[in-house]
């Protein structure tokens, strides 16, 4: 499921950060950005919105006052530099309360709560273990926690693999097929006998190559149809 989310914040820098975070989460779609509560209420009335990422301190009408004026609203994640409003926020049944500045993993945690609120079946799948957002990878005599959202692509290297993240790569002794079995099928796809990619990292496809960040990786003929199907 894709959540159409709306950023409501009067600070341009805060909107920039949220926009960058949202672009990295595969189940989020940025439906719009608003600088105040009145603008947000107009957007809510004219298009479907599943999630509002809402600042509290805004000119004319605060985020909490906006919620009080609405008879019904979608999932809400509050963002604020002020912890004293947290109780008031949860009394209004908000999904989560993020204290600025917050990290990307904390943001993902909050949006997963929102996804569970909007689509309870996501919670059901979690009880079967499908929701785990990370795996432990054995590498260089240690176990490293690797979040799925960190992985851009995985490359086979004989009986080893390289797991590429934006900041580094991890080498692990296992085959590409063994590693693929540990990945959520809705977030990753095999594109070649030597490569698995993260769907959210795809920038574009040109001919038989796919662009992942600054890399262009080959797409095998037998894998291309499945790649295109997953990206639809």
TrEMBL record:
<feature type="modified residue" description="4-aspartylphosphate">
    <location>
        <position position="55"/>
    </location>
</feature>
<keyword id="KW-0597">Phosphoprotein</keyword>
<dbReference type="GO" id="GO:0003677">
    <property type="term" value="F:DNA binding"/>
</dbReference>
<dbReference type="Pfam" id="PF04397">
    <property type="entry name" value="LytTR"/>
</dbReference>
<dbReference type="InterPro" id="IPR011006">
    <property type="entry name" value="CheY-like_superfamily"/>
</dbReference>
<dbReference type="InterPro" id="IPR001789">
    <property type="entry name" value="Sig_transdc_resp-reg_receiver"/>
</dbReference>
<dbReference type="InterPro" id="IPR046947">
    <property type="entry name" value="LytR-like"/>
</dbReference>
<dbReference type="InterPro" id="IPR007492">
    <property type="entry name" value="LytTR_DNA-bd_dom"/>
</dbReference>
<dbReference type="GO" id="GO:0000156">
    <property type="term" value="F:phosphorelay response regulator activity"/>
</dbReference>
<dbReference type="Pfam" id="PF00072">
    <property type="entry name" value="Response_reg"/>
</dbReference>
<feature type="domain" description="Response regulatory">
    <location>
        <begin position="4"/>
        <end position="115"/>
    </location>
</feature>
<protein>
    <submittedName>
        <fullName>Response regulator transcription factor</fullName>
    </submittedName>
</protein>
<feature type="domain" description="HTH LytTR-type">
    <location>
        <begin position="135"/>
        <end position="232"/>
    </location>
</feature>
């Amino acid at each position: 499921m894709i959540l159409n989310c709306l950023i409501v914040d009067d600070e341009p820098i805060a909107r920039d950060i949220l926009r960058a975070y949202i672009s990295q989460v595969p189940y989020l779609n940025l439906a719009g950005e608003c600088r105040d509560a009145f603008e947000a209420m107009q957007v809510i009335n004219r298009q479907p919105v599943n999630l509002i990422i809402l600042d509290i301190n805004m000119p004319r009408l605060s985020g909490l006052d906006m919620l009080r004026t609405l008879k019904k609203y979608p999932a809400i994640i509050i963002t604020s530099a002020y912890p004293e409003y947290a109780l008031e926020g949860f009394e209004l049944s908000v999904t989560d309360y993020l204290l600025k500045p917050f990290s990307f993993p904390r943001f993902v945690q909050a949006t997963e709560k929102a996804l569970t609120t909007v689509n309870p079946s996501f919670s059901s799948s979690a009880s079967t273990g499908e929701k785990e957002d990370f795996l432990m990878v054995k590498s260089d005599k240690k176990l490293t926690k690797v979040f799925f959202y960190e992985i851009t692509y995985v490359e086979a290297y004989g009986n080893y693999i390289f797991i590429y993240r934006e900041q580094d790569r991890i080498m692990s002794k296992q085959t590409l097929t063994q590693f693929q079995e540990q990945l959520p099928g809705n977030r990753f796809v095999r594109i070649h006998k030597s490569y698995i990619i993260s769907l959210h990292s795809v920038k574009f496809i040109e001919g038989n190559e796919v662009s992942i960040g600054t890399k262009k990786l080959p797409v095998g003929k037998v894998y291309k149809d499945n790649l295109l199907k997953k990206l639809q």
